[in-house]
Amino acid sequence: MTAEKLLTRNFGRADSHTLRAYLESGGYTAWQKAQALEPAAITEEVKQSNLRGLGGAGFPTGTKWSFIPKHHTGPVYLVINADEGEPGTFKDRYLLEREPHALIEGMLIAARAIRAAKGFVYIRGEYVEPWRRFSAAVKEAYDAGYLGRGLDVVVHRGAGAYICGEETGLISSLEGKKGWPKVKPPFPAIKGAFGMPTIVNNVETICHVPHIINRGAAWFASLGTKTQGGTRIFSVSGRVRKPGIYEASVAITLRALIYELAGGVAGNGRLKAVVPGGSSAAILRADEIDVTADVDGLRNAGTMAGSAGVIVMDETVSIPEALMVVARFYAHESCGQCTPCRESTGWIYQMTKRIVEGRGRKDDLDTILDVARRGAGTTICAFYDGAVGPYISYIEKFRAEFEALIPN
Amino acid sequence: MSVGNDAPGAWNRPPSGRAGLADPAPRVAFTAEQLAEARRLQSLYPDPRGALLPVLQMAQDAFGYISLPVEEYVAGLFNLSPAHVHEVVTFYTLFFREPKGRHVVAVCHNLSCHLAGAPEIVARLKARLGIEVGETTEDGKVTLQSVECLCACEHAPMMQVDDRYELGLTPEKVDRILEGLR
Ligand SMILES: Cc1cc2nc3c(=O)[nH]c(=O)nc-3n(C[C@H](O)[C@H](O)[C@H](O)COP(=O)(O)O)c2cc1C
Ligand code: SF4
Ligand code: FES
Fold first, then answer.
1. Is A90–B57 a contact, with Cβ atoms under 8 angstroms apart?
2. Which residues of B touch A178 (CB under 8 A)?
3. Cα of A161 to ligand 3 centre, how many Å?
4. Residues near B26 by Cβ (< 8 Å), separated by ≥ 6?
5. How far apart are CA B89 and CA A15, in angstroms?
6. How far is the CA of A59 from the centre of ligand 1 (A)?
7. C-alpha A330 – ligand 2 centre gap (Å)
């Protein structure tokens, strides 16, 4: 079930970030191959591979690429989302530091498919070492002539704001504004960065592209489930014996991931809950982890694969306290544009805090649920829905634990 | 490139009523070299304004923090209103609008770090530094922040000290790291 390693296959090499190491492992051969393919053929191959976006939304990558208007004559941009900020997720940090040339090669191929001559890589400002490593790789790629002959890459650093991970917030930020998400439609593929058609993809999504071109869509698709191909990197943290990154088939079950790869549950050793897709994913109880971790498997389980940040909690963890920490995050990171999001995230944090401090009121839980439900789906971006997932699921699944903290 | 502070317009002058708000700071300006770098950055984007964040980062490195005069100076480089730049500066957590310590210690308080003992780490930092979160030590050495997930949760609890990630913290390790700061 651990499948063959694609993205992390070179991580054992201390010099895996260098061009030499990348070339030795077959690097840039997919780019050679892709140059002989028509752009539409590349997109079709990626569609057939069932690659789905690994940044959070799980959208089919080839389909997204095909949305670029066919008869557009102006510039098209490729934007790489390296603003990794979803709590519990750390895979893109590894990819930038240890396999930067895979991202560059993937960008070359993707840019050919969508006819982009310029790519931006938006790296979160706190990632200093990943930025250095990736920038050094870009320089190597220019010197070796991979970049600068049809594709230019600009490495752009963020300045601290979770919301810039949302693709239209990221575009606003790239344009030199505060990172306010934009109303969709128009989607970025029609009108994105600097008003031009733009494809935004996650680092890991694009790192998969060379493998698909080299070994074929059918092979890639066969590694996963019927509706999602390939492997992905799971970031596992919290109360597990071996926290870290694990590349596995998207069809792995959460149970296998936690017990076979991550060494099982730490703390008191007994599992209480799992957040499977970064903090914005709804929480699962210990008896709900016999599900596959692909996009549709987790959607059917009432949660989401998101960024595959798996946070594990043993029985000694206080769920109300965990929700308070999560609610503080959403209150802090709301961009403030939409009233339901700005107001509810602040109030719900205050309420979870007073519950944890033993000052909760009888109707607090129902108020939180009511407020959360009414705001869901009404906002400009999916940030608020990402906050609602935890609010509702933590309370519904562990209600007794919250009630026990509320004085009579 | 057509924009520049060498092409001043009304937008580039501090509104007179605002002068009292700012420090009586010396004139803010990049060196010729820094200015050339700012222009280079601007040339990388289809619209030079795309370089606003990187140039603000440069300005912060050059001047220590982003005061109102710095905002106005940068606005001039971009043909933007100081209000736009102010809006941007206040939106992002990595921009400092007041002098910061020689070192910035940003401890993660998000979920995985919390589960691994972040509250204890925060308490240790506060006690050893003798300051609250958000404050700077009196000798100007350290500014302490408590921040959201820095995405190194596999090594929780963790913190960032300037450019470096410090991983797998214990209270003792925190002491050693603080002692190493000059
Ligand atoms: C609040 C919020 C935060 C997000 N943060 C990230 C992020 O840090 N990295 C990322 O790749 N995608 C993030 N996304 C998803 C992006 O909006 C977008 O779907 C993704 O970058 C597209 O790339 P993909 O199709 O390759 O996944 C976020 C979405 C939301 C709503
Ligand atoms: S949902 Fe929240 S984060 Fe998204 S645009 Fe609205 S206020 Fe901003
Ligand atoms: S929760 Fe602290 S680094 Fe992610």
1. no
2. 87-88, 91-92
3. 15
4. none
5. 37
6. 10
7. 10
Chain B contact for A392, CB < 8 A? Answer: no
Cα(A380) to ligand 2 centroid in Å equals 6
Closest residue in A to B53 (Cα) is A176
Select from A77, A158, A237 the Cβ nearest to the Cβ of B112.
A237
Looking up tokens 């934007």 gives A79
* pLDDT tens over chain A, length 408 residues: 456 899 999 999 999 999 999 999 999 999 999 999 999 999 999 999 999 999 999 999 999 999 999 999 999 999 999 999 999 999 999 999 999 999 999 999 999 999 999 999 999 999 999 999 999 999 999 999 999 999 999 999 999 999 999 999 999 999 999 999 999 999 999 999 999 999 999 999 999 999 999 999 999 999 999 999 999 999 999 999 999 999 999 999 999 999 999 999 999 999 999 999 999 999 999 999 999 999 999 999 999 999 999 999 999 999 999 999 999 999 999 999 999 999 999 999 999 999 999 999 999 999 999 999 999 999 999 999 999 999 999 999 999 999 999 998
B159 in A contact zone (CB under 8 Å): no
Domains B26-91 and B103-181 agree in fold:
no
Q: For the domain made up of B26-91, give the CATH fold.
A: Arc Repressor Mutant, subunit A (1.10.10)
Do A175 and B93 lie within an 8 Å CB cutoff?
Answer: no
pLDDT tens digits for range B96-111: 999 999 999 999 999 9
Per CB-CB distance under 8 Å, the chain A contacts of B88 are 176-178
Mutate one of A77, A237, A337, A352 to test the B interface: name it (highest B CB count within 10 A). Answer: A237
Superfamily per CATH, domain B103-181: Glutaredoxin (3.40.30.10)
Per-residue DSSP letter, A362 = T
CA distances from A334 to A89, A156, A174, A326 (A): 19, 23, 19, 12
Nearest residue to B103 (alpha-carbon basis) of B25, B40, B171, B164: B164
- Mutation probe of ligand 2 site: the residue of A162, A166, A182, A338 with most atoms within 8 A of C-beta: A338
Q: Is the alpha carbon torsion for A259, A263, A267, A269 positive or negative?
A: positive
What's the pLDDT at B27? Answer: 79
Interface of B with A in 62-121 (CB under 8 A): 78, 80, 84, 87-88, 91-95, 106, 109-112, 114-116
Record the pTM.
Answer: 0.95
> CA-based angle A249:A37:A70, to the nearest 5?
95
Residues A396/A303, Cβ–Cβ less than 8 Å: no
Q: Domain map of chain B by residue range? A: 26-91, 103-181
Q: Which is it for the CA torsion B8, B10, B16, B22, positive or negative?
A: negative
